[in-house]
UniProtKB/TrEMBL annotation:
Organism field: Gryllus longicercus
UniProt keyword GTP-binding, yes or no: no
Protein name (Swiss-Prot/TrEMBL): RNA polymerase II-associated protein 1
UniProt family annotation: Belongs to the RPAP1 family.
Compartment(s) where it occurs, according to its Swiss-Prot or TrEMBL record: Nucleus
Lineage of producing organism: Eukaryota, Metazoa, Ecdysozoa, Arthropoda, Hexapoda
Length: 1235
């Protein structure tokens, strides 16, 4: 913008008008703004505005008051006084400008006026005055020369100072002007710059000295003892101020970091303190002097004397703007989570540490962190996220169990909720926020955050290094294990499956780097990864449809076959990595075969499989404990062959010739090679001293595969059964029996108890996982060891395969000698193991996923003993125990155990003859109306098949519930409640409980009938007969059941129908069971929740009992003095109507009447109620003899024992006023009468 044109001499009127018009058009802001001060006095102006305006007003002159808002940049505001007089024109005289003065800092005019102002000088300067004394000149120009250097520089400087002190100001200015005119401008500039630099150095030296003095005076920098580190640092800091930028200001808060830290205050050993962790995730002690401060564990503000970082500080660092701090924090959090999963901190904290992490939104923090594209942060955040979601030990144990019987089934890590909670969750799931869903179910909440899309982006676009890639695959594997819906979310994610299959399951693996692990490669793209194959295997286990897509849509079987054919010695990968890849290839193919998929590949690679099996026969030895990789490879190979046998047998049984792709001829030739392998390995096992789990698993898998081949062989039309049976008998005689009598077998059975999940007495490892993120708990509590069945010396897999083989042998060869079972039963260690199982009350690991291996072993053992009838009593106890240990997904095992052993009459007559048992159970002849026990026992034993049919219906254990039907499913993943125990310990009462739960439906169906339905009578009769038989003949089985639970279950009979308990048979059976129950009446302890059920019983008794003595007897049990007062108050106050009809005689009580009388009642309200009921005639001896005696006793006894209390006096006063003199006399004389 051009400057405005100003008036100048010679302008006429037209020029001035033109300039005015231009000024108004441009509307230039004036340099001075006049403000009307009176506006501040208006009433609508705030007091704050007035005060601010007043503060801004200068008070020097009137002119200044008017122009108070004129803003001009002045160095300072002083009072000016000019000594010069006015000229004749009335204006100050004009002074000439000194051209040597330059505008540095202040304006040139200000510098001239400052010189002329007399207030700035002691005396008014005149042109003839000198510049000042030598000291004043030194203050102005300095005490030394800034230009000269050398020995005589100081002498020359002093001469210059003396010369300048004798000169006036005008003379000095004239000399300056002369020098500027005569000297070269470059030389003059050099001299000025040299002086300026020297002045800065002098100023810094002065400030440095000041800083040093301040530090010495500050107590924060005092150094104790001989440690001079901090003091030396401060001295170096002060001496080096000329070298370091911005060190001329003392910042005490920052300098405190270089001071010594005060020692931590001592605490008691049992005192709790805030947890701090090092960078490896290890919990730090309260103090540790050995830690060097240079390790970086003291860089925190809170608790500076303690090493390590708290969870809060790590959270804060993870959100830092500094990349290195975020990486350190995320890595440390990942290490902490890893230690938690390994059981390091199981007993270190009062609360579950993993739950605390999740409650404070750790998942969201990590989810946001993986959105960062920087690979180093991506690796750290994925590492922490993987350790949060996944359990490495669980995955390790699942891989370790592969090769065992039915190990291709995979667990479902779904969040378990109660039925009502699950229904509410489904109804309100859409309304829940993401963070709320994460509190309930972490995986389901994670899916809401589009974590799958983010992982797809990482793998497809970012293509990170090996570690991040493998972490992504492991996270996806954990998500798949959650549920079928999670697996579907991954398979339906656009391009994700294609990215995984194309990049990590390539058909051509020749590009792999020689002898380098995937984690050590620059990139794992176009490199086969076992983690990718495992992910696809878990996906395939969820659904036949998903497995079919992998085979047909993505064609992964071509890659799988190429991996199986790899020779580890020729593959350009480390041996272990190659083996893991081959194992996963075998197991994913086994999964496909279970769905009847990829069967034609088995025919194509038959020569390869036979060659591999022959290789193991030649090279694999049980005596070489270091060849665990060979054991695992052999196990995977034989498991694949076994699954092929099952698939071909399934196709044969379905009898679909057109769709049959795998037949017996494709698998029968493996039998011979497997027999010679097993013969060799059994011979070596008999004398081997150090046998590993992998070696025993290989032998167990061989037993299972041979058993499947033998079972399939006998159903073939063209098979030579005679020669086959002869060959089987010869093999068992020469090899199996030899091993059963060997030292190796004794060592195996001796380790059974230490390898048993059912005998484990410690805490379960799954309790360290929060409910929203469940785990298998394969690592036991405190991280002491793995689950027992997978211990390094566990023989469960070996013995399970051996017993399964013997079951098939005895089933197919009816004439096979029983000496093999005898050899098993004669082993003392094995029998002790069975006895310990029977005696164990409630195994903590019964519902553990890996307990299935042990339950399968026990089931096979029961089947063998059933076929040859050994140790009937012991086996019967074992069967009763086993049915309560079988998990829901394996309920098909229950059918044979229950039908063959549990409900078998032969097993009730084993240890002693039934007649002897009944002879010992004599009853009192005076009880003529009571059915003798002998009669009930005989009747029940004869009806055991009918009882089994009834229970089979209620338990839903039909004939079609077999192993073959169980395996022929559309998925190979456990159900959401698959690991729960199928039957409760009190399963004998289930028909009664079921009938009571559905009584509303039953009443609606039979509303027109006055009697109970025949089906209900049959169900209750069956249950009571079975309960009575088990209680009488197998009391050691029911001794572990809670007596209170038994009472409640029997009481439920009265609630099942209005007159169901009046049926004669039910009434007699119920009394027999109740009589047996009352032998342990002292063990009955009613919980607070029983109050509601007792209310229902009282209402039912008052409504339909007709004063039944047995029903009344049941009601009297909770009224004993040992039980809660609230139960007694229910009868005497809320339901006093029962007092009129509860007529059970004292003589018929099945427990001592003294239980109703002692100790004496002390509850005031209850005592007054007793007296009121007696006085009003509500309770009488003829109506309710037991409760009449109870009321009389407690009222009279309390008065006698507590005669001086106010309550006793009040009661005596009321008794004295009774109109019933007979009652009065009984109460007064009760003590004498009782004597």
């Amino acid at each position: 913008m051009s400057a405005m044109e100003r008036p100048k001499p010679g302008d006429d009127e037209e020029d001035l008008l033109r300039q005015q018009e231009e000024y108004f058009k441009k509307r230039v802001t004036p340099s001075v703004r006049v403000v009307n001060k009176r506006k501040c006095d208006q009433p609508n102006v705030s007091e704050f505005a007035k005060a601010r305006h007043k503060k801004k007003m200068p008070v020097h002159t009137v002119v200044q008051s008017v122009l108070s808002e004129v803003k001009e940049k002045l160095p300072q505001c002083n009072n000016w006084s000019f000594s010069c007089s006015s000229s004749k024109e009335g204006f100050p005289e004009v002074f000439a400008r000194n051209e040597t003065v330059t505008g540095l800092g202040t304006s040139i005019f200000s510098q001239h006026v400052n010189v002329l102002n007399p207030l700035n000088h002691e005396n008014s300067l005149k042109p003839s005055d000198c510049a000042g004394t030598e000291n004043e000149v030194v203050k102005t120009i300095g005490s030394k020369s800034y230009i000269l250097s050398g020995n005589d520089s100081m002498e020359i400087h002093q001469e210059n100072v003396k010369k300048l002190s004798e000169m006036s100001v005008e003379e000095i200015c004239a000399e300056q002007k002369k020098l500027k005119e005569t000297l070269d401008p470059k030389l003059l500039q050099f001299l000025l710059s040299r002086r300026k630099k020297s002045e800065n150095n002098v100023n810094c030296d002065m400030e440095s000295e000041e800083i040093k003095n301040n530090m010495c005076d500050n107590p924060c920098f005092e150094v104790e003892g001989t440690d001079q580190t901090s003091a030396e640092f401060i001295n170096v800091l002060c001496d080096s101020e000329n070298k370091w930028l911005h060190m001329n200001v003392v910042e005490e808060e920052k300098l405190q970091w270089v001071g010594d830290i005060a020692p931590a205050e001592p605490i008691n050993a049992d005192h709790q303190y805030n947890a701090r962790f090092d960078f490896q995730g290890l919990l730090m002690p309260y103090t540790l002097k050995e830690i060097d401060v240079r390790q970086g564990l003291y860089h925190h503000g809170m608790e500076q004397q303690r090493p390590g970082y708290s969870i809060e500080e790590l959270y804060q660092l993870s959100r830092s703007t500094v990349l290195q701090q975020r990486i350190v924090a995320l890595s440390t959090i990942g290490n902490i989570l890893e230690k938690i999963k390994k059981g390091f901190y199981d007993v270190c904290f009062n609360d579950n540490l993993l739950s605390k992490f999740l409650d404070h939104d750790l998942f969201l923090l990590l989810r946001f962190a993986i959105d960062e594209n920087t690979e180093i942060q991506l690796v750290a955040s994925l590492f922490a996220l993987k350790n949060l979601l996944c359990s490495d030990v669980d995955e390790l144990c699942l891989d370790r169990a592969m090769g065992c019987r039915r190990s291709i089934w995979q667990p479902c890590l779904f969040v378990m909720n109660t039925l009502s909670d699950e229904q509410e969750l489904k109804e309100s799931e859409d309304e829940l926020k993401d963070y709320k869903m994460l509190k309930i179910d972490v995986i389901k909440g994670a899916l809401r955050t589009d974590i799958i899309l983010r992982i797809r982006y990482i793998l497809e676009v970012l293509k990170p290094g090996p570690k991040a890639t493998i972490l992504c695959l492991e996270i996806l594997t954990r998500i798949v294990r959650h549920s079928y819906e999670s697996a579907l979310a991954i398979t339906c994610c656009p391009r994700l499956m294609k990215v995984i299959v194309t990049n990590f399951i390539p058909k051509n693996w020749s590009t792999m780097v020689d002898d380098v692990r995937p984690l050590d490669m620059q990139s794992v793209y176009n490199t086969p990864l076992a983690e990718a194959l495992k992910l696809l295997r878990i996906i395939a286990c969820h659904s036949l449809k998903l497995a079919s897509d992998l085979v047909h849509k993505y064609s992964i079987m071509e890659s799988v076959i190429s991996y199986i054919s790899i020779d580890p010695k020729e593959c350009p990968m480390p041996f272990r990595e190659v083996l893991n890849l081959i194992l996963e290839s075998f197991y994913i193919w086994q999964t496909f075969l279970a769905y009847n998929l990829a069967t034609h590949y088995f025919i194509d690679v038959y020569p390869l499989l036979m060659r591999l099996l022959q290789f193991h026969y030649n090279t694999t030895s049980m005596e070489n404990s270091s060849s665990s990789f060979s054991y695992e490879h052999g196990t995977a190979l034989i498991s694949l062959i076994e699954q092929a046998v099952h698939t071909s047998q399934s196709q044969f049984e379905n009898n679909h010739h057109s769709s049959r792709t795998l037949s017996y001829c494709h698998v029968k030739d493996f039998a011979g090679t497997l027999e010679v392998c097993l013969s060799k390995w059994l011979s070596q096992l008999g004398s081997a001293t150090d046998v590993t789990f992998s070696a025993m698993k290989l032998v167990g898998a061989t037993f299972n595969c041979l058993a499947s081949l033998y079972s399939f062989h006998l159903v073939q039309a063209d098979s030579d059964i005679v020669s086959w049976l002869s060959n089987l008998e010869s093999f068992c005689e020469l090899k199996v029996l030899q091993y059963l009598k060997s030292e190796g077998f004794k060592k195996a059975t001796a380790s059974l108890q230490n390898s048993s999940c059912l005998l484990y007495t410690g805490e379960v490892g799954s309790k360290r996982s929060p409910a929203s993120l469940p785990s298998l708990g394969a690592l036991l509590w405190k991280g002491e060891s793995l689950t027992p069945v997978l211990q390094p010396k566990s023989p469960i897999a070996l013995l399970g395969g051996l017993l399964n083989f013997l079951v098939v042998a005895y089933t197919k060869h009816k004439g096979l000698n029983s000496k093999y079972v005898s050899a098993l039963m004669e082993d003392s260690a094995f029998i002790d193991y069975i006895k310990c199982i029977n005696e164990k009350a409630s195994p903590k690991l019964a519902s553990h996923w890996f307990a299935r291996l042990e339950i399968d072993l026990l089931t096979s053992f029961l089947k063998i003993t059933y076929l040859k009838s050994f140790h009937l009593h012991l086996i019967h106890l074992m069967a009763f125990k086993l049915v309560t240990l079988i998990q829901r997904d394996e309920k098909y095992l229950l059918h044979d155990v229950m039908s063959q052993i549990v409900f078998n009459a032969d097993y009730f007559q084993n240890s002693c003859a039934l007649s002897e048992k009944m002879a010992a159970l004599q009853i009192d002849s005076s009880q003529s109306k009571v059915v003798p026990k002998e009669h009930l026992i005989l009747m029940t034993c004869q009806e055991l098949p009918a009882l089994w049919n009834c229970y089979k219906e209620y338990l839903n254990l039909g004939e079609d519930l077999t192993l073959s039907n169980h395996m022929a499913t559309n998925n190979l993943t456990a159900t959401k409640q698959g690991s729960e125990l199928f039957l409760p310990a009190d399963w004998s009462y289930l028909p009664i409980i079921h009938l009571n739960n559905n009584k509303g439906t039953e009443q609606k169906l039979y509303s027109d009938s006055s009697s109970s339905s025949s089906a209900a009578v049959a169900a209750v009769t069956t249950a009571l007969k079975w309960v009575f038989l088990v209680e009488e003949l197998r009391p050691d089985i029911t001794v572990t059941l809670n007596v209170t639970d038994k009472y409640c279950c029997l009481s439920t009979v009265f609630l099942c129908g209005s007159d169901l308990f009046l049926d004669p048979i039910i009434h007699e059976l119920l009394f027999a069971c109740f009589r047996r129950l009352m032998q342990d009446y002292q063990k009955i302890k009613f919980p607070s929740s029983f109050y509601e059920m007792y209310t229902q019983l009282l209402e039912q008794f008052a409504a339909v009992s007709y004063g039944d003595n047995l029903f009344g007897h049941f009601l009297l049990v909770p009224l004993q003095q040992r039980h809660s007062t609230d139960l007694r108050k229910q009868v005497w106050s809320e339901h006093a109507a029962v007092l009129r009809i509860l007529s059970t005689p004292v003589q018929q009580l099945l427990f001592p009447v003294n239980e109703m009388l002692e100790p004496c009642e002390v509850d005031e309200s209850l005592l007054l109620t007793y007296l009121h009921c007696l006085a009003m005639g509500t309770v009488r001896e003829i109506w309710c003899p037991v409760l009449y005696l109870t009321a009389m006793h407690h009222v009279a006894t309390f008065i006698n024992l507590h005669n001086e209390t106010d309550l006793a006096k009040r009661m005596k006063l009321k008794i004295s006023k009774l109109g019933n003199k007979e009652l009065q006399s009984l109460l007064v004389n009760y003590k004498q009468a009782s004597k």
